[in-house]
Amino acid sequence: MKHLRKLLVMLCFVFLITGAYSTTADAAKYMDLNISVKGFKTVELSWDKKSVDGYKIYRYIGLDKNGTFKYKLIATVSPYTTSYTDKKVKKNKYYLYRVVGYTNKNTKYKKKYIGEAGCYTGLSSVSLDPDCKLDATPKKIKIRFGASVRINNHFSIIPDGIQILKKKNGKYVPYKKISYKEYQKNCVFIDKNVKPGKKYSYKFRTYKKINGKMMYSSTKNSEASTYALNTIPKCKIQVVNGDSQELIVSLKNNEKYGDFKCNKYCNYFFDDDVEDYGSEQEIIAYSFDNNTWITDFSTFQVKPGEKIYLKIKEKTDVTYSLSDIISFDIVFKYGDNDILVEYNFAKKTTDSSSYD
User: Fold this and answer.
1) Which of 26, 30, 110, 349: disulfide with 18, CB 3.0–4.6 Å?
2) End-to-end CA distance of the chain
3) pLDDT of residue 118
């Protein structure tokens, strides 16, 4: 990844430079340079024919002491040639090329067109969306390819597909394969071999058969996990008693599987006319019988079908009445998901959503 970032920075820099060529009459113009990785040791370049006397092909070899790009001339081809194959590359390396279309009138050499392109001589890897969350229910887990799970082409070897590895007994083992054709259709793989409430982990890698041997990309940074639970659980909040300074509510877990693991977060929302600036609320204790209160939240959880009582306290000296509160939010964890639950005082309703 470090080398990839370096290559991308180099490309951006070069494109800025080549883009500047077209701003003056005497400067070289930018031309499209296509690049394709045919194997671990073969890179193919191609371009559209231009009105020139020939093409010079360069490969990037590093920076000099002044930070200037250094290129090595690897070939000179005729004006009728529009492709070049470089077979002097190594496996799993990043390469940057420059093709210069030139004129040579009266022995005066002039750069007329310049094209730049980079590639990686290895298998395309798999990356996950930064917010990758696998869709789940107690009976199945969905993996969305092309959205949550993507192939990083980056001008590298196009794979035959993606292999899913599933964690079993502490180790990841090959589970299923998705062809590249299926991947291109943004297919959804559904894993029905799950048990309600259990956690499942997956890794992904690309694969390709080269010279009769199956090759795989790295699984680094490709892990995704989730519980076989509903993404948004069913629950219900009711106001039991109390006032604006100390309010007692009940929370019921209406799911068949999975515990709610709560924290102390709570936030009131007020009518626009209420002076509530600086007010701050917190859940200070919980109880299973609305009688014995517990302040240690380290083991706080609400099991399926269970009801628990929460004591909410205003932490500041700001004063207001209970009728001034429109609604309040609390947050709990369900599986791997943070769930935001809102209670509306007027409607006496409970709404749940994912808390990002």
Assistant:
1) 30
2) 27
3) 93
